[in-house]
Design goal:
The protein is an all-alpha fold. It is 68% helix and 0% strand. This is Protein translocase subunit SecE.
């Protein structure tokens, strides 16, 4: 028969690295009830976080939308001009 030894909390503390805490293993929770409660908790926390969000005003949305459209138009124009110049340069080099 093998001799069983009990480890004391002091022995356990010695094996844990300094600064590290030992976490007890969670039992597997695969029941439907626990999944439903986890899902309910997730939605409750999500609702709380959405209440903290600072939503932009209509004026801010309009201003940023116009700024984005202007930048997109300018970049499109710039890239079109660069593409056109590079196409002509390649035609001159190849001909």
């Amino acid at each position: 028969m093998a001799k069983q030894t009990k480890t004391t909390t002091e022995e356990t503390k010695k094996t844990v690295q300094p600064g590290k805490t030992q976490v007890a293993a969670k039992p597997e929770a695969n029941t439907i009830g626990t999944r439903v409660s986890e899902l309910r908790e997730f939605f409750e926390q999500s609702k709380g976080e959405l209440k903290k969000v600072v939503w932009p005003t209509r004026k801010e949305v309009t201003a940023t939308t116009i700024a984005v459209l202007v930048v997109v138009a300018l970049m499109g124009l710039f890239l079109g001009v660069v593409d056109s110049l590079l196409s002509k340069l390649i035609q001159v080099v190849l001909s």
